[in-house]
Write a structure and sequence with these properties.
Helices cover about 35% and strands about 15% of the residues. By secondary structure, it is an alpha+beta fold.
Length: about 230
């Protein structure tokens, strides 16, 4: 495979030479002059979405600077391909036989639709039953403050982020914030760790119960294994 260089192409012939190396499903990438630079336009043969008759389809023209490198030209071809494919998908995707995301819908129509059509929102709060039970177990603590514990909880506690770290869950290992909360809630629900919450404050987690949970890690990993991965070494 010929390596791509970082040298500016500058001429139409140089851009055409790079584009000639690009291939996708038999598509053609047309190159031409545009302003102070060039353009790349994908063309392909496919059924027309309105008539169903095979015809030449053309994507938009993508500007290419005369200072663009070979790699930038190749990636512009990829972007042109990706957008053209998405365009076709928006035309073909239908609900009750109607192309609801049709890319040729006029902007005036879209503005009018936004003005006259109600917006759809998700419920203000959405939790799964396991999370709700776990939150219920993270009870509001209103008892007396034990001697030597100034936090207001019946035992030493740690924050959510510290709990995640001490349990050996890597927050950067394909986890979203919601899935991390799910894991912790599941461990509370199954009794592996204890949770407390002062009114109006975030839940905190029993430090001693986390230590105990770590000793039974293999057990609780089976409970929530599909949501967990061992912390990378």
């Amino acid at each position: 495979m010929k390596a791509l260089t970082g040298t500016p192409l500058r001429t139409l012939g140089n851009v055409e030479a790079v584009v000639a190396r690009v291939g996708f499903r038999g598509w053609k990438f047309v190159v031409g002059d545009l302003g102070d630079g060039f353009y790349i336009q994908p063309r392909f043969f496919a059924p027309d979405t309105e008539t169903g008759i095979n015809a030449t389809q053309t994507g938009r023209k993508w500007y290419v600077s005369p200072f663009a490198t070979e790699e930038e030209v190749v990636k512009t071809c990829w972007l042109a391909t990706e957008v053209a494919c998405r365009h076709e998908a928006m035309e073909d995707f239908k609900l009750d036989g109607v192309s609801i995301f049709h890319p040729h819908t006029s902007t005036d129509s879209l503005v009018e639709m936004q003005r006259t059509s109600p917006l759809v929102h998700r419920p203000d709060k959405e939790t799964n039953p396991s999370t709700e039970k776990a939150i219920a177990m993270a009870h509001d603590w209103q008892g007396p403050v034990p001697s030597g514990i100034a936090s207001g909880y019946p035992e030493p506690t740690v924050s959510f982020s510290v709990a995640v770290d001490r349990l050996g869950i890597d927050p950067n290992d394909e986890y979203t914030n919601s899935s991390l909360h799910y894991v912790i809630d599941k461990l509370v629900l199954t009794g592996y760790i204890r949770a407390y919450r002062l009114k109006g404050q975030h839940a905190r987690y029993g430090a001693d119960s986390i230590i105990a949970a770590c000793k039974r890690r293999e057990e609780w990993m089976l409970e929530v294994g599909k949501h967990l991965r061992r912390k990378k070494s």
